[in-house]
Design brief:
Layout lengths: L7 E4 L2 E4 L11 E3 L2 E4 L5 H17 L16 E6 L2 E5 L2 E5 L13 H10 L8 E7 L5 E4 L11 E7 L1 E6 L9 E5 L4 E4 L8 E7 L11 E7 L3
Antiparallel strand pairs: 1-2, 3-4, 4-13, 5-8, 6-7, 8-15, 9-14, 10-13, 10-15, 11-12, 11-14
Bound molecules: 2-oxoglutaric acid (AKG) and fe (ii) ion (FE2).
2-oxoglutaric acid binds next to strand 8, strand 11, strand 14 and strand 15.
């Protein structure tokens, strides 16, 4: 990835950046309007990012959210940024603090760099959700719509084992298309595709050596507020 030059300025909760996007960066494939950049992070960049994520998890441990119906999700998660996504019996929302009461750690620069390269917006994300999938974890079809400004994109980074990512429609049901996401792949939900239903059907355990005990990490950056 070419070096991005960005000037970050924060006005209260809102962060903006001057973006100089790499003109050579083109997606390897697009499904249903979702561009996918294969291997945008090479093995070295993935390992470096993983180290940063370990620091975050040490400060703000992974927790297992429950849905508003009281069902435990199969992924464990935490967040970085000014606010983090949580789910419990009171529903889905962004919170200023981890359920344990601690601040969310800042979003690492290496993660923001990916946003700058592919997001196409001059805003910076204020939240980065970190999902950890064990071998049998999955994520049901859903829309990402808890953010205030749904015109702002969602940028997703995959690390670790391959995952079968399914993309549907703007309403639940109908035809879907699936793609295997591998470690280092990046995708963007923006524009017409911002509110497409999507989910993760299953992992391919043992497909990556990045995480010593296996599993998958997905990072999703968003402008939440
Ligand atoms: O794990 C993934 O690839 C998708 C995660 C996701 O859709 C979400 O966190 O909203
Ligand atoms: Fe999502």
């Amino acid at each position: 990835m070419a070096l991005q030059v960005a000037i970050r300025r924060c006005f209260g909760e809102k962060c903006v950046t001057k973006v100089i996007t790499d003109p050579d960066l083109t997606p390897d494939l697009t499904i249903r309007g979702v561009p996918i950049y294969r291997g945008l992070l090479d093995a070295t960049a993935q390992a470096a990012m993983l180290e940063k994520l370990r620091e975050i998890v040490a400060l703000a441990p992974l927790f297992r959210p429950v849905t508003s119906r009281g069902k435990e999700m199969s992924v464990r998660m935490t967040s970085a940024g000014c606010c983090g996504w949580v789910s419990d019996q009171r529903g889905y929302r962004y919170e200023d603090r981890h359920p344990g009461g601690m601040d969310w750690p800042p979003i690492p620069d290496s993660v923001l760099e990916v946003w700058r390269a592919v997001s196409g917006t001059d805003r910076l994300p204020d939240s980065c959700l970190i999902n950890f999938y064990e071998d049998s974890a999955r994520m049901g079809m859903h829309q990402d719509r808890d953010e205030v400004d749904l015109e702002q994109p969602v940028v997703s980074i995959s690390l670790g084992d391959d995952a079968l990512f399914r993309v549907g429609n703007l309403t639940r049901g109908g035809k879907t298309e699936s793609v295997w996401l591998s470690s280092g792949d990046v995708l963007v939900l923006s524009g017409e595709a911002r509110l497409l239903f999507h989910g993760v059907d299953r992992l391919r355990p043992g497909s990556s050596q990045l995480l010593p005990k296996g599993g998958r990490i997905n990072l999703t950056m968003r402008v939440a507020r």
